[in-house]
Write a structure and sequence with these properties.
Radius of gyration: 21 Å
Structural class: alpha/beta
Number of domains: 2
Order of helices and strands: EHEHEHEHEHEHEHHHEEEEEEEHHE
InterPro entries: EF_Hand_1_Ca_BS, Gfo/Idh/MocA-like_OxRdtase_N, Gfo/Idh/MocA_oxidrdct_glycsds, GFO_IDH_MocA-like_dom, NAD(P)-bd_dom_sf
Pfam families: GFO_IDH_MocA, GFO_IDH_MocA_C3
Keywords: Oxidoreductase
Protein name: GFO family oxidoreductase
Organism: Haloquadratum walsbyi (strain DSM 16854 / JCM 12705 / C23)
CATH topology of the largest domain: Dihydrodipicolinate Reductase, domain 2
Low-confidence stretches: 86-92, 95-111, 383-387
Shape: globular
Mean pLDDT: 88
Strand content: 15-25%
Strand order of the largest sheet: 14-13-12-11-7-10-9-8-15
Largest sheet: 9 strands, mixed
Distance between the termini: 33 Å
């Protein structure tokens, strides 16, 4: 039965009421962390920020952030990475050719004493190809890891990141905030209950004007050494892929993709825009379009044999859900649950799992499955616009 009121729709909720809190170190202080994640984290009831890790020098902006959000400690990435103990593991950006000789003199100098007892978990919000070294050192400290999407720049590095956390027996969660939205979770419930019959097609789009938002063409999203396989799919399409997998509780088995990049500023990456068809088991198809050169917009329509669900604004933090299931039609507006609320729900849920010793979801295996799909999409698109045949998706054995 389709619910008649929004009050019954829940996001991830805490499992216990407690006065305990999880202390976060926030690594990477770019736009997303400073304007979205930090305000959301400070709004969490069971979490707090105690440590800020800046990728460059500690400046007045960093000090102001620490004062604003009550962080007790600031450090540079060099200081954090100086906690490295195993120089045998390559942890440079994916485009680097340097390697460690293993000599004692090659180890990073540790001229500052870092108090790792000041935080219980790290939240990594750096460029994609920097996730691995931070997660590896956090795992060595036995700190729980909450990592932004995608988990890393490619499947191999994502696997390494997950392995480090597994070997250290520390929780690893990927901050797929869209899964936290009550309307997205409600849509999954309606699909599971069969309210729209058998799903046949999903139509989705996710667009933004990247160079209007961030005019610098030297930014990391346009640098293959930092972003990974590409930019439109890796930065935006990942939301579509993960959300479709979440709603269907299934993985794509094949993809057909077209990737294009013929605009100044995007010369180094294969896609300023992309179009794809993802084939799921039982014949379900996801038709997805994404671009870094369009106005802000996002939507996902799930079409079934007996009805449909239309999620507008789904990836932008203010989502509405229109339900057409048989004789039942209606629209749920849930704009009061914003992007900040999605991120607060991520921080609260992860903290609650740590406090109650519960397994987290979405975890590293789920994130690597997304990367596996994207790898197949880029292989099929190949930057030439002639992706005409399905390309099989190969998943690691643990997925």
């Amino acid at each position: 039965m389709v619910r008649s009121t929004l009050s019954a729709i829940e996001s991830h909720t805490r499992q216990i009421e407690t006065t305990e809190t999880v202390r976060y170190a926030v690594i990477g202080l770019g736009w997303w962390a400073t304007e979205m994640a930090l305000p959301a984290l400070t709004a969490a009831d069971n979490a707090t920020v105690t440590t800020l890790v800046a990728e460059e020098n500690i400046n007045t902006d960093t000090q102001e952030l620490a004062r604003r959000y009550g962080a007790d400690t600031t450090m540079t990435s060099e200081q954090f990475l100086s906690l490295e103990t195993d120089t045998g593991e390559q942890h440079n950006l994916i485009g680097s050719t340097s390697s460690s000789s293993g000599n004692e003199s090659d180890k990073p100098a540790n001229n500052n004493i870092i108090d790792t007892d000041l935080y219980d978990a790290v939240y990594i919000a750096t460029p994609n190809a920097a996730h691995l070294p931070y997660a590896r050192i956090a795992a060595a400290q036995e700190k729980a890891v909450l990592c932004e999407k995608p988990i890393e720049a490619n499947v191999e590095r994502g696997n390494k990141l997950r392995t480090h956390c597994q070997q250290a027996n520390v929780p690893l969660m990927i901050a797929y905030r869209v899964q936290m939205h009550p309307l997205v979770r409600y849509a999954r419930e309606l699909i599971d209950q069969g309210d729209i019959g058998d799903v046949t097609v999903i139509q989705s789009h996710h667009t933004q004007p990247l160079l209007k938002m961030h005019p610098d063409t030297n930014q990391w999203r346009l640098d293959p050494a930092q972003t990974g396989y590409g930019t439109a799919i890796m930065d935006l399409g990942v939301y579509t892929i993960n959300t479709a997998r979440f709603l269907l509780d299934a993985d794509p088995i094949a993809v057909s993709a077209v990737t294009l990049a013929d605009t100044p500023g995007f010369e180094a990456v294969p896609d300023d825009r992309a179009a794809a068809i993802l084939s799921f088991p039982d014949g379900v198809q996801l038709v997805a379009n994404t671009t870094q050169r369009g106005q802000h917009g996002s939507g996902m329509k799930i079409i079934g044999t007996q009805g449909s669900l239309d999620l507008q604004g789904i990836f932008r933090g203010q989502c509405s859900l229109t339900v057409a299931a048989g004789d039942i039609e209606g629209t749920f507006e849930h704009t009061q649950f914003t992007l900040h609320d999605e991120m607060t729900a991520v921080f609260e849920y992860f903290a609650d799992c740590l406090l109650t010793d519960k397994s987290v979801s979405p975890d590293g295996a789920e994130a690597i499955a997304d990367l596996s799909v994207m790898r197949a999409m880029y292989a099929d698109g190949d930057g030439n616009g002639d992706g005409s045949a399905n390309h099989a998706v190969s998943y690691p054995e643990f997925v």
